Amino acid sequence: RWMDTTFTVRKGSNMKFFKAAIITVIVLVLVVGGLMVKTYYDAGEFKEIAPHFNAECKAISGVLSSEDITVDPKTGMAFISSADRRTQWSGTSHVQKGAIYGLDLKARDPKLVNLTADFAEEFNPHGIGLWIGENGKSLFVVNHRQDGHFVEIFDFKNNRLIHRESIEGVLMHSPNDVIPVGPRAFYVTNDHGNSSELGRVVEEYLQLARSLVLYYDGNDFCIVAEGLAYSNGINLSPNGSTVYVAATVGQKVCVYHREKGTGDLKLRHTIELGTGPDNIEVDESGNLWIGCHPKLLTFVKYSKDPQELSPSQVLKVTVQKPDSYTVDEIYLNSGEPLSGSSVAAVSGDTMLIGSVFDARVLLCTLSK
């Protein structure tokens, strides 16, 4: 009888433990499943893509990619950042040299022209920004080289970009985009707060807001904005008092007041977009044009496999008055004829749409 009692007690204890283990496993599965569903939902993977655009576009080939584009509003000259980005990201050593191409939007039949053919250094251009000063024009270019990350400054003379200097700094460990505010001064986004590869992956998939904005005053770098979820494109209002920063994972644009004397930034407003903004261009009226990734995880798949098409989207953010904006979707496709749109630059009734990886740029006519 003593043996029978012991067996009964042990059997009952085992059953309780077994039930508790099952419940624990079920709870863990539900939690993990819920997190996965939330991640897919936040990334826009459940969105229905209904392509639309009210005008025509023509694909122009001849670039390795067209990740960033900016247009001189006075001359209509478009500057296009072109790099062998997919090969570069794969870690292989056979990366084709990148370039900044010019495209004259006022020409009857615009043709691509390599403006940096004379630049002898390693060149993998990323974000770009145009400075128009009293003494001429300069293009600032984020360049990822094997010996580090640099902002290259080119002076635009005689339809060529002539290299002036290379700027680097310890704080600038993952630069993405740049906007100049003087002959040597600029803001640059660090799209990750972590400098290690593992830290960056964790930062992305856990949607951690660790990235930041740096200011270079011509001598030193300093941090002027923090706590962004993948700080990407950056641009400036026409009067220079407002800085716009795209937070791709955060799916919003952060609006900062700029203190012109010190370069300090103070968060003033956020524009919720519900999509992943990449680069920001500002037209002559001060409105924002943004290339976006409506399905962020699909874009990640596309970055590794060109067969996995990623939708392209262009938003126009109209400035009604200070800190009052309306958002309109101007363009949307399912990945064709351009996949993974990263920028939309407008001059008059012409819009250029660029891609992080596709070897083409779209030249579109906007309806009036």
Structural class: alpha+beta
Q: Mind describing the biggest β-sheet?
A: 4 strands, antiparallel
- Chain-averaged pLDDT: 90
The percent range for helix content is 10-25%
Order of secondary-structure elements: HEEEHEEEEEEEEHEEEEEEEEHEEEEE
Rg estimate, integer Å: 24 Å
What can you see in these coordinates?
By secondary structure, this protein is α+β, with helices and mostly antiparallel strands. It is built from four helices and 24 strands. The strands form six sheets. A four-stranded antiparallel sheet has the order 1-24-23-22, with no helix packed on it. A four-stranded antiparallel sheet has the order 2-3-4-5, with no helix packed on it. The chain starts with a helix and ends with a strand.
Brief synopsis:
By secondary structure, the chain is α+β, with helices and mostly antiparallel strands. The protein has helices spanning 2-42, 85-90, 197-205, 296-304; strands at 57-61, 68-71, 77-82, 99-104, 112-114, 125-133, 136-145, 148-157, 160-167, 175-180, 186-190, 211-216, 221-228, 231-236, 242-247, 252-258, 265-272, 276-282, 288-293, 312-321, 324-333, 341-347, 350-355, 360-365.
Question: Secondary-structure blueprint of this entry?
Answer:
Blueprint: H1 2-42, E1 57-61, E2 68-71, E3 77-82, H2 85-90, E4 99-104, E5 112-114, E6 125-133, E7 136-145, E8 148-157, E9 160-167, E10 175-180, E11 186-190, H3 197-205, E12 211-216, E13 221-228, E14 231-236, E15 242-247, E16 252-258, E17 265-272, E18 276-282, E19 288-293, H4 296-304, E20 312-321, E21 324-333, E22 341-347, E23 350-355, E24 360-365
Antiparallel strand pairs: 1-24, 2-3, 3-4, 4-5, 6-7, 7-8, 8-9, 10-11, 11-12, 12-13, 14-15, 15-16, 16-17, 18-19, 19-20, 20-21, 22-23, 23-24
